[in-house]
Design a protein that fits this description.
The relative contact order is 0.13. Helices cover about 30% and strands about 15% of the residues. The model has no long low-confidence stretch (mean pLDDT about 95). It is of the alpha/beta class and about 325 residues long. A six-stranded parallel β-sheet has the order 7-6-8-9-10-11, sandwiched between helices. Strands 2-1-3-4-5 form a five-stranded parallel β-sheet.
Length: about 325
């Protein structure tokens, strides 16, 4: 009988049922778990399921029965992988579940910025159309998506699908080589060249020591006037203060962000503060991945990870 503890059930939508594994098990789940609560809740767990709970080396050492950490996400930043390996604890994540919903979110961001959808919407909430002297008005320039150059940083499954959708819309797609790379692979352009050519830059690379603050004051200066920046990857890819400065100065025409450096953010986060006054800054709360179909794919893959692990232990 495997003891399973799900530490942060609210990291997944409540209306999506989570399929239970077929092998004999006990199942205990908690809405959220603080760092102080982990040991008491998971001390008898052989399997932990979690999305974002931080499992440090110190905590793992205090969970002698633990055999598997099943992550309900792709990123494994919340687990000390070196400590887990030393302790013989397997770590299984899930990849490839959001390759439809994230690219669609990116395309939605592009249209929202290019067509100034939020500006028009806010106007109507203030009754501006009703006060117009004619059938429409022209306060905000509308720019076509077709013909734009889309620069993609990261050519994994999501980056490639963003590129496919963009090409279907008549955009020219270019992929950036890794920052600082000496050799440029076939199908890529130098990182700096992509920033200089792109009308829209979208980030889909992993967070590493090399990519943290990849978009900063210096790299933002390389982008053409009127360019747009989109980030549905990791918040730490962007220097948030540098981004706000570029938006306020008008050297960047707009940005759409689904991820922040700290999540949930502080109320006084620099980007949230800027978003309250800058109509060209769109922010969504890390939900680009979370379409119903994507979440169902995710939980089914988590279940399969559990099944495969236990089958291999037999």
């Amino acid at each position: 009988m495997m003891n399973i503890v799900f530490l942060d059930r609210t990291a997944l939508p409540s209306h999506i049922d989570i399929p239970r594994p077929s092998f004999p098990h006990t199942w205990q789940e908690y809405a959220r778990t603080s760092q102080e609560e982990i040991i008491s809740r998971a001390q008898d767990a052989e399997i932990i399921i979690t999305s974002k709970v931080l499992l440090t080396a110190d905590i793992l050492q205090q969970l002698p029965k633990l055999k598997l950490i099943a992550i309900t996400a792709t990123g494994t930043n919340n687990v000390d992988l070196v400590a887990a390996e030393k302790l013989g604890i397997a770590v299984k994540n899930v990849a490839g579940y959001s390759t439809v919903t994230v690219p669609e979110h990116v395309i939605g961001f592009i249209f929202a910025l290019k067509h100034r959808l939020m500006d028009w919407y806010h106007d109507q909430m203030q009754g501006k159309w009703a006060e117009s002297a004619q059938f429409c008005y022209f306060d905000y320039p509308i720019l076509d998506v077709q013909g734009s150059v889309l620069g993609v940083v990261g050519k994994g499954d999501i980056g490639k699908e963003v590129g496919r959708l963009a090409q279907a819309l008549g955009m020219q797609v270019i992929y950036a080589e890794r920052y600082g790379a000496k050799n440029v692979r076939e199908g890529y352009l130098p990182f700096e060249e992509v920033l200089q050519k792109a009308d829209i830059l979208t980030l889909h690379c992993p967070l590493t020591a090399e990519t943290e603050n990849l978009i900063n004051a210096e790299t933002l200066k390389l982008m053409k006037p009127g360019a747009l920046l989109i980030n549905t990857g990791r918040g730490q890819l962007i220097d948030e203060e540098a981004l706000v400065s570029a938006l306020e100065k008008g050297t960047l025409a707009g940005a759409a962000i689904d991820v922040l450096r700290q999540e949930p953010p502080q109320k006084e986060n620099v980007l949230l503060n800027a978003g309250r006054k800058l109509p060209n800054l769109l922010i969504t709360p890390h939900i680009a991945w979370a379409s119903d179909s994507a979440v169902r794919t995710l939980v089914n893959k988590v279940r399969q990870n559990l099944e495969d692990f236990v089958a291999n232990q037999a």
